[in-house]
Design a protein that fits this description.
The chain is α/β, with parallel strands linked by helices. The protein is built from 7 helices and 10 strands. The strands form 2 sheets. A 6-stranded mixed sheet has the order 6-7-8-3-9-10, with helices on both faces. It has a 4-stranded antiparallel sheet with strand order 2-1-4-5, with helices on one face. It is globular. It starts with a strand and ends with a strand.
């Protein structure tokens, strides 16, 4: 599913990641934990092809990243993104936000997805008319709308209270198990991370299995 070999990344003279080796299986729910500045967001950006590493190799869905001709289309078809900030467009409804970049063949499944996430009744509302927890559910729905094989989530509960944080991690766990989607979450919240199948810890640009 996803394999990285000897990934190193530098910003100018600062080394953000050093010699990262990692394999993640299909349908696995992975949490990457670490303090701010530990390298977890940089690693997530590289794994999701948003950032090219300074050196090393990334194999994703059986393809080497450097061999992917149309990387934007590859992302749209195979990868979903969830961020700490929902980045919803305020003048579009919930439904319009979700379907803005969706493939036509998946539009018929949006209502079912909204029901699964408990936000069907909100489909005609605008982001400013719903709560923070509901907006993050909309962001999750948007990430899943094109039926990706991998979902990357960077601090998806950073702006939520504990109850909504629990709900988001529970949803991600269900997505991985029931839909066989690989879910990779970067988080500073170790307690939430324990719902994942595998936990990795980042520290000063290095990664290790959490013990």
């Amino acid at each position: 599913m996803l394999h990285v070999t000897n990934i190193t990344h530098k910003y100018a003279q600062d080394t953000a990641l050093e010699n990262i080796n990692l394999t993640i299986k299909e349908g696995e729910f992975v949490a990457i934990v670490g303090k701010s500045g530990s390298g977890k967001s940089t690693l997530l950006s590289i794994l999701s092809t948003l950032l090219k590493p300074t050196q090393g190799k990334l194999q994703l869905l059986g393809k080497m990243s450097q061999d992917i001709v149309d990387i934007d289309e590859f992302r749209r078809k195979n990868i979903g993104f969830i961020f700490q900030f929902h980045y919803l467009i305020n003048y579009l409804t919930v439904y319009e936000n979700i379907t803005l970049a969706i493939y036509n063949e998946h539009k018929k499944d949006v209502d079912s997805l909204l029901k699964q996430l408990g936000i069907y009744k909100l489909k005609d509302r605008y982001p400013y008319e719903i709560s923070g927890g509901q907006r993050q559910r909309v962001a999750i729905a948007r990430a899943l709308a094109n039926k990706p094989k991998i979902v990357f989530a960077d601090e998806p509960t950073g702006n939520l209270d504990s109850q909504n944080s629990d709900n988001v991690f529970e949803m991600l766990q269900i997505i991985a198990k029931q839909q066989n989607v690989t879910v990779i979450v970067a988080t500073h919240d170790l307690e939430q991370a324990h719902s994942a199948d595998t936990i990795y810890e980042m520290n000063d640009g290095h990664i290790s299995n959490y013990n």
